[in-house]
Design goal:
By secondary structure, the chain is an alpha/beta fold. The protein has a single domain, classed as Vaccinia Virus protein VP39 (Rossmann fold), CATH 3.40.50. 46% of the residues lie in helices and 19% in strands. The protein contains 8 helices and 7 strands, in the order H-H-H-E-H-E-H-E-H-E-H-E-H-E-E. Helix 4 links the parallel strand 1 (69-73) and strand 2. Helix 2 packs antiparallel against helix 4, helix 3 packs across helix 4 and helix 7 runs parallel beside helix 8. The chain starts with a helix and ends with a strand. Mean pLDDT is 82; it is low at 4-13.
Length: 211
Amino acid sequence: MQIYFIKFCEIFFLEYIIINIINNLLNKVDKKEFIKKIRQYGIDNTIPNISDVNVKFLIDLIKISKTKNMLEIWTANWFSAINFWIELELIWWKLLSIDFSQKSYEEALKNIKEVWLENTISLILWNALDEIPKLENSSYDFIFIDGMMRRSKDFLELSLPKLKKWWIIIIDDVIKFKEKMIWLWEFLDENNILYNVLPIDIDDWVMMIVK
């Protein structure tokens, strides 16, 4: 018992040191200013990042659910992912994001390097439909789907085996682009999958599926 306690203390102390090191590095970057910068860059370059309201909603969900391993389908310039991490600042929290855009990939890498997050946030540059099946089953407790609307059903279907016993799935823009997501709605009905559609943002309703 004493050995286990000593080991626990060593791990806790190591995590404490790492968290403080990363926080010290992040303090060199004004977090709020950095978020403002990539938000404005997205606006100026018509990058469809999620709204600030939705970011706050997702952060609250991550906190409440104590998410440890998150999958994000669609990256943009990683406005959402960097928001999540800067707010949460948990060394044990991991996120994998998949995007097929070379430009998005390069912008995302530049942004995460600027806030020292290369070891916490990972990016795969390829088609999510090809990459999701390669991921380990029962690995994720939170999946955020914000990719090509017409493929939302495929993203969801491929993602289900990758979830842990208890999980949350959020799908963005389900009302705004409902006509592009007909197959998603049909898939949910055919498989008796329960869901809630939440008006988190007037222009940006989300679907939440929970187990």
